[in-house]
Write a structure and sequence with these properties.
By secondary structure, the protein is of the alpha/beta class. The chain has a domain of 63 residues. The protein has 22 helices and 31 strands. The strands form 11 sheets. Strands 6-7-8-9-12-14-16 form a 7-stranded parallel β-sheet. Strands 18-29-28-25-19-24 form a 6-stranded mixed β-sheet, covered by helices on one side. The protein has a two-stranded antiparallel sheet with strand order 1-2. The longest helix is centred in the middle third of the chain and has 21 residues.
Length: 756
């Protein structure tokens, strides 16, 4: 049974506070009136234990002391760990004292048997934290795992990390930590709609303090891929398609997360308030052919029909690697899964980014001189088993190699860590292969090189001196009033008013409004669990009643508010349908941005890229195939509501994740609000006139699916944009306030003409 960790605190008059577990075997060494933790537990003060030295010197000293076996543990990055954890097909068996958690009687903050094993046996020191049961539980869990790690040889603390946690939507593998007690902010695309780097920096400053209060010292963000392909389902995690805007916001994001000031600073802007950022996904994952995403085998290829490869590097080179703050550059980079098709100018390889000598060794490490941590995306060393599930391995271009050989190739191109790998055996096997090929001295140097980079990020954040948390202190930080209010203000600023015919908005408070039920289609969540079909009132329906008198009879209403989601369907999200394959097709289908059935009459007759060990063909074209959205009834809701309301106004609020075809409903809407994943309260505050809208489109809104099909996946701003019934063009930087179309400094700074 897990017990609360007993901690000892030692204070330095002119130095950091030292905290350690009573049971860890750690003692205090005093030198020249100063105190140091003897993490090696040998009574000697080693350079890596001396907090007066630079992180670089400490990392070099510790790396030289570690065995290859121990360094291999540092190179591992765990699968998602939940608090409490549970068994699943993806995560495998999870037990507590040999039992499932619900049968174990263990507290929620306990370490699972598997977590204890990978800390002690495999030497894992980088743990990916997903959803948590509460602040107090994650704090106690952090203290438990840190105490366990501290008791091991050399006392290396755990660098807990997280995907983005401050959004509203927790429905995807890469956002499962969202909505767990932190302040709530818009998704990246919503932050982009503010066109405000200072706001994004403020977000980073506040979010990083909440991260640290949860025991998290690395953020697997920001996602600075350029979303030049409008059908990409990871669009909402980006800052849009403009390299300048994305660079500015990426820079602000990293500065906010990484910078410590005042007493919290240790060196060069790093310190006890700092959170390492892992920018993703090098060299940019936003141009998958046909909009397909590289989480799936069907989406493994990024294509560049416009010859625009270098444009996609700008958010990294001009944003993440050119910070205004003292930390200078993002502390880590994650390459994407994608095969960056036909862009290797030296070796001619079409190979996954994490394996690519050209993308990593020649460009990122070589030409651009990046000497921080590089970590693969999750599961790339494992075998691919299918084309359409998110959990399949992604060893693209190296399928013929063993797992050990894949690990060696990754190391040889300059990557330091393996995402989603919790067992050291493949890394050790890679080392032995490397010794046979390159010699023991070479491989020892190569492992130490990665160890120094990895350890440097842990030293910078002060974990070696104090990795522990106090529950009461954390609970005053996570979700505190100041941060919640700031997140709410950001949500307000991210809302975009696209249409306001006859100045129908804002509505008066206590007007009588009709709010139709929302259709929730059947489907599956990100783990593959079925989600049933249902009709229900929109989220926050009771909250709507605090603003307006709500009637179920449209004849009685003064206005209607329709809450809808942009078109979506599981197979469309992937661009692949197993039924098509079973029926003699190639499996590939269009990804549509419209509600009504779509037939791809203007798609490529032959795909640019293709080829997979699981396929006996190379042409992935979906020309003239038809797909059906699973929420077409959202469109019917708007049309039916307009018919029922007659001449009375209809307001449409769209829960959006990117561009869509608005022509299907725009003529029937008097007002349109574009909402990038915000809570309902700021939407209602806008509709009722509590504040003036200020958001701008960080995207283009296409006229139709023809322009979507004919645009180039790698080129921004190459679609014909929709023109509404009021004569407004829904182009990049368009947005409205109560006075009409916005023409302010943000528009002048970022409008398309300034980028030419």
């Amino acid at each position: 049974m897990e017990k609360n960790v007993s901690l000892i605190c030692e204070k330095n008059t002119n130095g950091p506070k030292l905290v350690y577990s009573e049971d860890s075997g750690v003692k205090i060494i005093e030198r020249e009136g100063l105190k140091f933790k003897n993490l090696a537990k040998d009574g000697q003060l080693h350079p890596y234990e001396d907090w007066r030295l630079t992180s670089q010197k400490r990392a070099e000293d510790l790396a030289a002391r570690l065995s290859i076996d121990q360094i291999a543990g540092l190179m591992l990055y765990s699968k998602h760990q939940f608090i409490p954890n549970y068994s699943s097909p993806y995560f495998g068996e999870v037990t507590y004292g040999g039992k499932e958690f619900q049968d174990s009687g263990y507290p929620k903050y306990s370490l699972s048997d598997q977590q204890k094993e990978f800390i002690m046996k495999d030497g894992v020191r980088h743990v990916l934290v997903g959803s948590v049961s509460g602040v107090a539980d994650v704090v106690k869990w952090n203290n438990n795992i840190q105490a366990l790690a501290e008791a091991q040889p050399f006392g290396i603390p755990v660098n807990n990390c997280s995907d983005p946690r401050h959004g509203i939507d927790a429905s995807a593998e890469f956002s499962v930590g969202a909505g767990g007690g932190t302040s709530q902010w818009p998704e990246n695309i919503g932050l982009a709609a503010t066109f405000d780097p200072e706001l994004v920096k403020e977000f980073g400053e506040m979010a990083s303090k909440e991260y640290r209060a949860l025991g998290l010292t690395t953020s697997l963000s920001p996602q600075c891929d350029l979303a030049t392909e409008p059908r990409w389902f990871r669009f909402p995690g980006t800052f849009g398609e403009d390299a300048k805007l994305s660079s500015d916001l990426t820079r602000a994001y990293c500065d906010g997360f990484q910078t410590s000031e005042g007493e919290a600073e240790i060196e060069d802007g790093w310190g006890r308030d700092s959170v390492n950022t892992m920018v993703k996904h090098w060299p940019g994952g936003g141009c998958g052919e046909g909009g397909r995403d590289a989480h799936f085998g069907c989406g493994k290829y990024s294509v560049f029909p416009g010859g625009n490869f270098e444009y996609h590097l700008k958010p990294f080179l001009e944003g993440a690697f050119e910070l205004e703050g003292k930390t200078k550059k993002a502390s880590s980079v994650m390459p994407y899964y994608t095969v960056t098709y036909n862009q290797d100018a030296i070796h001619g390889e079409n190979i996954g980014s994490g394996f690519s000598e050209y993308l990593i060794k020649d460009l990122l490490r070589g030409k651009y001189g990046y000497d921080e941590v590089i970590c693969t995306d999750w599961n790339i060393v494992f075998d691919q088993t299918d084309l359409d599930t998110i959990f399949s391995g992604k060893c693209w271009g190296v399928e013929q190699l063993s797992i050990a050989e894949r690990c060696l190739k990754i190391l040889m191109v300059g990557v330091d860590q393996f995402g989603g790998l919790s067992e050291k055996e493949p890394v050790m096997a890679a080392y032995e292969l490397g010794v046979q090929k390159y010699g023991e001295d070479f491989m020892r140097d190569r492992f130490e090189q990665s160890a120094v980079r990895i350890l440097r990020n842990i030293f910078r954040t002060g974990l070696f001196e104090n990795p522990y948390l106090v529950p009461e202190e954390s609970e005053t930080i996570v979700g505190n009033k100041k941060y919640v209010e700031a997140g709410y203000e950001a949500q307000k600023k991210s809302l975009i008013m696209l249409k306001n015919a006859g100045n129908i908005l804002p509505l008066k408070k206590r007007q009588k409004v009709y709010v139709p039920k929302q259709y929730i289609p059947s489907g599956f969540d990100w783990e593959g669990n079925p989600v049933p079909e249902k009709w229900e009132y929109p989220a926050g329906y009771d909250t709507i009643k605090q603003y307006f008198d709500v009637t179920e009879n449209p004849q009685e209403a003064d206005a209607a508010i329709c809450f809808i989601k942009m078109p979506g369907i599981t197979t469309m999200m992937r661009g692949y349908d197993c039924k098509d394959k079973e029926n003699g097709g190639n499996g590939y289908v269009p990804i549509s941005l419209q509600y009504r059935p779509y037939t791809a009459e203007y798609a490529r007759t032959h795909s640019i890229a293709g080829g997979d060990p699981l396929e006996d063909f190379t042409d992935r074209s979906y020309f003239r195939k038809t797909v059906y959205t699973n929420n077409e009834k959202d469109l019917d809701t708007v049309l039916d509501t307009k018919k029922a309301m007659g001449d009375k106004p209809v307001i449409v609020v769209i829960y959006a994740a990117g561009p869509m075809i608005v022509s299907e409903f725009e003529p029937y809407a008097d007002g349109i609000i574009y909402n990038f994943s915000n809570t309902i309260v700021p939407v209602l505050d806008l509709v009722s006139g509590q504040f003036e809208p200020s958001g701008l489109l960080p995207i283009q809104m296409p006229k139709n699916m023809r322009t979507v099909e004919e645009q180039f996946e790698d080129v921004p701003f190459d679609m014909e944009c929709y023109v509404d019934s009021e004569g407004n063009t829904y182009d990049y930087t368009f947005g409205m306030n109560w006075s009409g179309v916005i023409h302010d400094e943000r528009v002048r700074r970022y409008m398309q003409s300034n980028r030419k």
